[in-house]
User: Fold this.
Amino acid sequence: MRDLDAELHELRARIDRAARVCVLSGAGMSAESGIPTFRDALTGLWSRFDPAQLASEEGFRADPRLVWDWYAQRREGVRAAQPNAGHLALGAFAQRRPGVLTVVTQNVDDLHQRAGNADAIRLHGDILADRWLQPCRCRPRRDPGEAEPGRPPRCPGCGALVRPGVVWFGEMLPEGAMEAAERAARAAELMLVVGTSGAVWPAAGLAGTARRAGAFVAIVNPHDSEIDASAQLLLPGTAAQILPRLFA
Ligand code: NAD
Assistant:
C-alpha cells in the first residue's frame, strides 16, 4: 500500500535541503480559488464555442465583441478570486527562503503575485492587461489606456482595437519568459509541476528539461497528465491540499 504521508514527508525534506526549487503551475493551481480551468471555462453559455475562436487573433478579428466579452467575464472572475492555500504556501516559502523558489506559471491570473511571488514568470501573459491588437498609428497614443471605452475599446483616431494581454494560439510567448523559465528549470534541484494537463507547449517541456538537467521532478494533480512520464513522483491531490504540506 502506498504511504502518501511518508512520500510527502520525504519530498518536504528534499525541498528543505534544495538550494533551487522550481514550481511550474497551470490552471489547476487556481481551480480551488474558483477560477475555472480552460476546459471548465468552456461550459455553460460558452460550451458551443471552439477554444480557437475565443483564444486566437483570427477568432478575435472575426468577432471582437464576443471574444472581448468572454475575457471581460473571466477578468471579473480573476478580480473576485483570492489566492488559495497552495498559492499562499508558495508565497510564504519565498519570504522565508528568499532566492530559492522560482515560480513559472502558465496562468494568466495574478494569484501567485498576490500571494507573495511577485516575480513569478508568466509564460502566457496577463489577463488583466490591455494591449493593442495591432500598433496604433496615432502617436503618441501608444497606451491602450487612452482608448475609447467600448466592447472592445478602440483608438478614437485610427480605430485600432484593444485586446487582452494573454498569449493566444499560435502566438509567441512574452519576450524572455521562456528563456528565464528554462534557466530556472535547468538550475532546479527539484521541480514541482502543479495543476497542468501538460498539453500546452513549450511550457509542458519544462518538466523534461529539469529532469534531464538532473532535477527530481514531482507532479501534483488529482488526474493523469500528459507529462507524467517526466516525473519520479506523482502526488494525487490538489494544489490547496498538497502544497501547504510541502512548503508551509
Ligand atoms: P488545463 O486546463 O489544460 O489543465 C488543468 C489541469 O489541472 C488538469 O490536468 C487537471 O487535472 C488539474 N487540476 C484540476 N484541479 C486541480 C487542483 N485543484 N489542483 C491541482 N490540479 C488540478 O490547464 P493548463 O495545463 O494550465 O493549460 C491550459 C491553458 O489555459 C494555459 O495556457 C493557461 O494559460 C490557460 N488558463 C489559465 C487560467 C488561469 O490563469 N487561472 C485558467 C484557465 C486557462
About this structure: The longest strand covers residues 125-132. Residues 217 and 231 are 5 Å apart (CA to CA). The chain has a mean pLDDT of 94.
